Amino acid sequence: MNGISVSRAAIAALFVLLGSAALEAHGVSGKDAVFLQGLQGQAIGPLMYLGAKHMVTGYDHLLFLVGVIFFLYRLKDVLLYVSLFTLGHSTTLLLGVLGGVHANPFLIDAIIGFSVVYKAFENMDGFRRFLGRQPNTRFAVLIFGFFHGFGLATKLQEFALSPTGLVVNIVSFNVGVEIGQLLALTAILIALTYWRGHPGFLRHAFATNAMVMASGFLLMGYQLSGYFLPVP
Hints:
This protein is mainly α. The protein has one domain. It is 78% helix and 0% strand. The protein has helices spanning 3-23, 30-37, 44-56, 59-69, 75-98, 105-123, 126-130, 137-156, 166-196, 200-228. The longest helix is centred in the last third of the chain and has 31 residues, at 166-196. Mean pLDDT is 86; it is low at 15-25.
């Protein structure tokens, strides 16, 4: 597969993510929702599974991770930025559910969509081109990590979770999120590493990040429409 084919495959994958965003928000539904609603006591394994599933199928989280590691070539840099993101979303996930901190889920998810736009714009060197300076990337990843974790919390706050075993269950869910993030990150890194080995990577990097940005704008619009035009 040549560099052009690889870049086309990457952009096609982004179109799939873009399309999935238009279908529905990635809340907990179906059998998972029924399970959470009727949960009584500790359920470590199932909650870890739900956490991992939520992260792996969370297109907004995955798009942000793609943006974060897109130009990171050293493993220690990847670990640093992912650790900052993990610290952020773990903190607000636990605080939101266990601490009872609430916010409108549509607004939180709109900010998460903005985080995708922000990171893609940064990868396109937009801040230097238009503002003449580069914001602190590490700080931005940490702050957006807080919102991503809060987004996860709002999904769980939709249910009247039993207080019995709640702490263990939420910690288990968070551990599952980290496992899902590790799996998704591994797949993304493998794909990016393969693509970087072809001469077309840098040539198509701008267009790919433009697609990521477009996905972020779609996510923002979808969530803001839910906030301003609620379903009766």
